Fold each of these.
Amino acid sequence: MTGLTRSSADLDERRRRILYRCWHRGIREMDLILGQFAEVEIAGFGEEELDALEEVMREEDQDLISWINGSRPVPERMDTPMFRRIAATRPRFDVVTMESLGAR
């Protein structure tokens, strides 16, 4: 299961490809971070924003997750408006609720 909730039918080829790649990163945390971000934002992105998102996506998952969760400082080259937007919308992985554990 990818977690994808939006249809990509209304997106052009580039946006569909980016959305797919955001949900298929390699580690689940990055799937959730980039996938959920892209689902909400990608339809409204212009070409420059798509370029900026693809620039972030070129980075290794382990690096991205460590910069996003604050365990390592963000390098100057990655301290971009797009990276900050992604980091600001990340899910809270540290929050455990009874519902997240499957309790009802």
Amino acid sequence: METVNIHEAKTQLSKLLDGVSKGKPFIIAKAGKPIARVVSIDAPEAGQARRLGFLTGQVQVPDDFDRMGEEEILAQFGVDDAPAA
């Protein structure tokens, strides 16, 4: 994410906001210290973005998941005998 100082943000605000509307947020800094983040109004708020693992503990995968439907699949490929487990 691009960081700009206050003076640059004031002089190039239109250009920076055009970038924001195209999905390029930026940070405004004062003396090199970030003080504000400018993002699109449609951007998800902090904590609203989907995270991996959001269903942890709510879903169980069966032990035979990788063999589910094995007989049907083999039958579709014309294999009569299923391999020994």
Amino acid sequence: MFQSSQYTGTKEENYQLLIKQLHALCTGETDDIANLSNASSLLNQFLEDVNWVGFYLWKEDQLVLGPFQGLPACVRIPSGKGVCGTAVKERQVQKVDDVHSFPGHIACDAASRSEIVVPMIKQNEIYGVLDIDSPTVSRFDELDVKYITQFAEALEDYI
């Protein structure tokens, strides 16, 4: 689950520690880009079997690429298009076990096989999404959904 040797507990304990580290990184910093950058780096450093971790920000009625770790990505995604646009339109987490079976999937990285996208909402408005891709089918389980959602919600306090 986690790459770092400091994460030696259960999967839940490791996620809880990761969220504490997010708070430590973001406390006192008011710049959104700095906090999003550190958050994407933190997730990318510690999650195993992922090939893209990052954010798309809601601007001008579309998602625009924000801070990320991974290969170059799609720059703009309309609401309702692909996994990220669907997360925005439905305002719900999207956990896709096989992106090739997702209608309208946008293939930014051909190696991606599964994906989780968490919509980020501030003051009842879409702020953007946290997007994590994996080269492995069915990489994400319900515990990942729970804690990646909590990670995104914790980050919302700093953006």
Amino acid sequence: MLALRSALFNTLFYANLILQMVVLTPVYFLLPRKKAWIVPKTWARTNHWLMRVVAGTDFTVEGLENLPADGIYILAPKHQSFWDVYALLPALPDPFFILKKELMRIPLFGWYVAKQRMVPVDRSARGRAMAAVLERAKAEMATGRQLIIYPEGTRRPPGAPPEYKFGVARLYRDLGVPVVPVAMHPGLFWPRKSLMRHPGHFTVRILPPIQPGLKPDLFLETLIRETEAASDALLVKTVSDNPHLPLPETARARLAVLAERKADVS
């Protein structure tokens, strides 16, 4: 049954993507840039509906009140699956990503992200590339936008040891805006490199923002400490609430460490 539901969800997920691109592309490109967000946000919401109804997976978002009211901040979520690429879009007024320049050349997709003024980075240019990215990011944030960046840079399995990149600390220092950490474990339900979609419920926890002004090293230490503490708590809660889940080795190992710590304290 799990394989059948997963296959049905995957089929409908990509059919939904293609259908909305075909039907709503004219609407997207005719609307003003900010109003055009209704198209990808509608796509995200229909994906959530499909995941709930077909795959049996639902989620709760906690801490929306922690998002700065002026809308100018860096959102720094854990990154475990394709789900978290689009999942929080409906909750954000006008987000943007920093992405590889090569992605801008993909037909249709590249046009979509170009309209939303995403910030491309030419990795071959190294230092010059970062300066250009910072200039563009400052310009976008000055208009009241939110930068989404994954501090670990790539998808990591649930419970894996943290591998945060220093790039988020440099952006924090140079942009001078709050950074909002986000802890969650969608990778337990939508595992990377797998076609299985596991039923259940998980929590997305938006943490209080780290205000600007810290030295980069101290900021990075704070980001890791606060995100990983929340991530550990959610891992324990999620596994307890969903005992049927097949856990990756990284999650099993982390749960063992947390159980040992709890026993030592007791």
